[in-house]
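Hello,

Our lab assistant flagged a job as stuck in the queue for most of the afternoon. It eventually completed. Since we weren't sure the result was trustworthy after the delay, we are filing this so someone can double-check. Below is the sequence as submitted and the structure that was eventually returned. Let us know if re-running is recommended.
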Amino acid sequence: MNKRKIALLAALAALAVWTASSRAPRAQNRVLANAFPAGLLLSPASCTTPEWPREARRYEVDGITVVHFQIGADGSIENPTIAKSSSWQLLDDAALRSLVKCKFKPGLDEAERNTYPIQFVWTLSGPAMIRPALVPASCKESGEFAGFEAFNRAPSGVDGVLVRFLVDPDGVPFGVKAEGGVGDASATRFIRSCKFALDPALPGEKTDTLYGRVLMKAR
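-- returned structure --
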């Protein structure tokens, strides 16, 4: 193994990290090119800083996306895959769109045979926002769903559906988005049957966003 390859492996063996805040100006967010060791990129300008999706900002969702990738003989990104989801497809997709634009120097020996990780950290800066809470016993009785658990961001599956939504001044959910699972449409209808409210006694800035899982009834 020659020195050039050893240097590459040592540089990328550790988890590269890119961090952004939804409320920070773009200039203050970390440039994606800086997540990689200097000298490995063909052009740092090719590694564009990921755009925090406008919809993700509106719904105030965050998380960590871990992507595994390989480097082709020509220096291009190959086989990028989501190794760990942020729970939100729009953030995962934004990470992939940005990463595949990166261009490493060609001819980095057998680098394309190795798989490397990079972690995209999507954070909501500032103090925690006060989000609406489910009004007890407000959801319509369902033969399919047992209820709603706020702030549970486990992936959609046979035991529940991950959703994010907004709440209007009357406590009615709208703009409900389900994160790809069995029963998305019915989970959306169930959430729309519920009522939510902000606790006026709680100090802090209020928001109209909420996320969690619609829980399936045990069968």
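-- support follow-up --
The delay was a queue issue, not a problem with the job. The result is valid. The two ends are 56 Å apart (CA to CA). Residues 3-13 form the longest helix (11 residues).
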